[in-house]
Amino acid sequence: MPWKECNRMDERLRFVARLLDGEKMAAMCREFGISRKTGYKIFNRYKDFGIRGLEDRARSPYRHPNKTPFQVEKAILRIKREHKTWGAPKIRDKLVKEFPVIKPPAPSTIHAILDNHGLVKRRKRRRYKAKGTDLSTALSPNALWCADYKGEFMLGNKRYCYPLTITDQRSRYLLACESLESTKGVGAFPVFERVFKEFGLPAAIRTDNGAPFASPHALFGLSRLSVWWLRLEIGIERIKPGNPQQNGRHERMHLTLKKEATKPASFNFLQQQARFDDFIEGYNNDRPHQALSGRYPAEVYTPSAREFFHPEPPEYPFHDRTIQVTQCGRICIGHRKVNFSTVFAGQYVGIREVADEIWLVSFMDYDLGFFDQTENRVEPVGVNPFAPKVSPMSSAGAPE
Predict the structure, then answer these.
(1) Does 133 fall in a domain?
(2) 83: which residues sit within 8 A by CB, 6+ positions away?
(3) CA distance 379 to 368
(4) Can you give 151-206 as a three-state secondary structure string?
């Protein structure tokens, strides 16, 4: 008979009553599923205190050796109310002045006391909210490419296919249509690298705000892929969320792709990719386009004069130091580790002190955020990082 947790008092009464009737302790403990030590403890409490001894006892300790004395806690609250703008370090210094004999609590303890009494204003971290960027109109090939994933669909082998498509906005030339297993960046990187090597680099790329083009949890929605584009000196354009018409030319191509190359779907990726390759050939070289006055996209498009290159690490001559971001997304300064963003893992950033114990973090020509002596994380600046501006890294910022 197991001990009934739902009504411990009744079980203890029954246990003691049967012991008083003469039953053996060992047999009773086996029946109630408790140890003999616990059985004797319950019986002795009954003999010492009667029925009250069978009630549940408080489990909290009798004393708290690390608890701040109430007099000190009262003084902390008084100082805070007198000086509403003071923080824990300054309040601690004031306590040392007023009570030099008493060992003052740590700043973290003072902050916890203030927080428990509702005297700390919690600072909400600013999170990036996708809003889109300024959009341009391409007047020549390679001035703007558009990239997106056509909606996934199931192949005959029950696996999902995610086609990654890249077009040149001016000529409507379909640069790539690659069948991938997911929208993760690990699949997109080799596709873009192959296209860059074959057709050169565009001036800018327009995408939506989804993965792998953007990351909602990173600074300004940057992703590893978009950071790589910045390193290749490719501008980033993003449409406003919920407005696919801002990438209308590309979406119109998706409609044609869906009708001609996905219905019905092929059995596996190899067969589906063969259909995509045939679609690319026909779309670029055999399908007149009304917006091009009946010409083929291949008749309008020319490869970019900007060849693909492997960028050298950026230099920051007007910053205090250059630091490589760790693989876990941190900026390490001595023994200090400042949380930055994993999308910049392996990249070099510039650090410059812009005020007393406040440092600015820059990446290439973009000022991304600040950190101070107390907070081990980078808080983003409130400006659009996609609009290039003069920063301390550029030559325009050099002293005369």
Answers:
(1) no
(2) 90, 91, 94
(3) 8
(4) CCEECCCCCEEEEEEEEECCCCCEEEEEEECCCCHHHHHHHHHHHHHHHCCCCEEE
Specify whether the CB–CB gap between 111 and 118 falls below 8 A: no
213 with 238, same domain: the answer is: yes
Take residue 268 and report the two structure tokens written for it.
């596996």
Taking CA atoms, 353 is separated from 144, 334, 373, in Å, by: 37, 16, 11
pLDDT (tens digit, 9 = 90+) per residue, 8-44? 778 888 888 888 888 889 888 888 888 889 889 888 9
Give the confidence band of 390 by pLDDT, cuts at 50, 70, 90.
very low
Pair 108, 228 in one domain: no
Residue 88 pLDDT level (bands cut at 50, 70, 90): confident
Residues 249 and 152 in one domain: yes
pLDDT level of residue 97 (50, 70, 90 thresholds)? confident
Burial 200-218, CB ≥16 within 10 A → b, else e: bbbbbbbbbbbbbbbbeeb
**Quick one: 201 and 271 in the same domain?**
yes
Structure-token pair, residue 364? 């290439």
In sequence order, what are the residues at sequence separation of 6 or more whose Cβ sits closer than 8 angstroms to the Cβ of residue 276?
163, 177, 178, 179, 257, 261
Q: Is residue 174 a part of any domain in this protein?
A: yes
Does one domain contain both 367 and 295?
no
If asked whether residues 163 and 294 sit together in one domain, one would say yes
Report the C-alpha gap between 337 and 377 in whole angstroms.
Answer: 8
Domain limits for position 94: 70-116
DSSP 304: -
- Nearest-angstrom CA–CA distance, 289 and 100: 85
Do 336 and 271 share a structural domain?
Answer: no
- What sign does the CA torsion over 93, 99, 100, 104 have? negative
**128 against 387, higher pLDDT:** 128
Residue 162: CB atoms within 10 A of its CB come to 18
Specify the pairing of strand 321-324 against strand 348-355.
Answer: antiparallel
Q: With 90 as the cut, is the pLDDT of residue 398 above it?
A: no
| Full-model pTM | 0.65
| CB count in 10 Å sphere of residue 107 | 16
Distance CA 43, CA 25 (A): 10
Place of tokens 């949890």: 217
Q: What is the pLDDT of residue 1?
A: 45
Question: Is residue 275 in a domain?
Answer: yes
Name the token pair of 74.
Answer: 């009262």
Average pLDDT of the residues of the chain: 84
